[in-house]
Design a protein that fits this description.
The longest helix is centred in the middle third of the chain and has 24 residues. This protein folds into three domains: 61 residues, Arc Repressor Mutant, subunit A; 163 residues, Nucleotidyltransferase, domain 5; 51 residues, no CATH class. Strands 5-6-4-3-7-11 form a six-stranded mixed β-sheet. The chain is globular and about 70 Å long. The chain is of the alpha+beta class. Helix 5 packs parallel to helix 7. The protein contains eleven helices and 14 strands. The structure holds zinc ion. Zinc ion binds next to loops.
């Protein structure tokens, strides 16, 4: 059954995306939405149903546990790993624990315990201060994903979904087309790094052999895309905004950024720098005008960046102090 994953082409990816947004849609409406002939749509739906991706009765619906996708977020102070199902739903903390214990994965000593107020299955590790260590962490995680993928082929039907893709989200300017980290202000060693550099040759070979796709992108833009699909979940607290063509998602981590979707398209900017709100230069608030500026510059090298002034003037902290606190502590 795993082999059929590789037959997912862009046309039936479009169908899956449409079903994510409009479960229960009528076939005739779907054909019209996707601008394809009804006969062609029917053929593709049959393939998707036979391969276990969708169910057609009583209504059209994605089979949510048909596959997992893995997300790794590399932030300025900490990194996060999770798995999402075919409906872009993050697996629960309970399911993540079960999976880790049963298959002995994601148990490396670099993982740290972090208080997670939500019941999501996240695994955390501190962002290393050098590229070589980050590479070790990422490659060890991917080796576990490869092991899980192998186990999914031998396990009983539906017991362990195959992992079809890995997304690594980073801060700063990421060229999605060329798959290059141009510059990540909060992680200084990530500058002009091609995706391939992050992966050991063995890892690259194993991923290619299994057709597991690995993509790097900007964290806030990736978040906006995930949010766009998540809005359609009836239990999403912002469900009433599902179907909106324009979305802005703010990301508060070691810096401030924003993922922008306008007219259903992710806005990247001419230099892939759109949404890096934290580095927009702003005047100081009048009450701080006479105060001395901090000695350290912003991570981008300038002095009047929004996030730099927010950390220094409003929160009264150094960048290092800010990195160590959690969002709960700021509240
Ligand atoms: Zn800056």
């Amino acid at each position: 059954m795993a082999g059929e994953i590789f037959q997912i082409n862009y046309e039936n990816r479009d169908i899956l995306n449409a079903l994510r947004c409009h479960p229960e849609i009528e076939k005739t409406v779907l054909a019209k939405e996707l601008n394809i002939a009804f006969k062609t749509l029917n053929k593709q739906l049959e393939f998707l149903e036979q391969s276990g991706f969708i169910s057609m009765s009583p209504q059209l619906e994605i089979v949510k546990d048909r596959f997992y996708m893995c997300g790794i977020s590399v932030g300025g102070s900490h990194c996060k790993l999770t798995l999402v199902n075919a409906q872009y739903k993050v697996i629960s903390a309970e399911d993540m624990d079960k999976l880790c214990n049963k298959y002995g994965v994601f148990q490396q000593s670099f993982f740290v315990h972090r208080k997670n107020t939500r019941e999501y299955g996240y695994k955390y590790f501190d962002t290393p201060d050098n590229l070589a260590t980050l590479e070790i962490y990422i490659n060890e995680i991917i080796q576990d994903i490869i092991r899980l993928d192998d186990l999914s082929r031998t396990s009983g039907a539906g017991e362990l979904p195959p992992i079809i893709s890995i997304g690594i989200a980073l801060t700063g300017s990421i060229d999605l087309k060329k798959q290059i980290i141009i510059r990540s202000h909060n992680v200084r060693y990530l500058k002009n790094i091609k995706k391939e550099i992050l992966l050991w040759p063995d890892t690259r070979y194993e991923l290619k052999k299994r057709n597991i796709e690995l993509i790097i992108d900007h964290n806030a833009k990736a978040m906006a895309v995930c949010e766009k699909f998540s809005l359609y979940h009836s239990d999403n607290k912002n469900h009433e905004y599902a179907g909106k063509k324009n979305i802005a998602c703010f990301y508060l981590g070691s810096g401030i950024s924003c993922g922008l979707i306008l007219n259903n398209r992710v806005i990247r900017g001419a230099r892939n720098f759109s949404g890096e709100l934290g580095h927009i230069q702003i005047p100081r608030m009048p009450e701080f005008e006479g105060d001395a500026l901090p000695k350290e510059r912003c991570t981008c090298g300038r002095m009047y960046c929004m996030e730099h002034l927010l950390i220094w003037d409003v929160l009264g902290m150094s960048r290092d102090e800010f990195r160590k606190i959690t969002s709960e502590e700021i509240k």
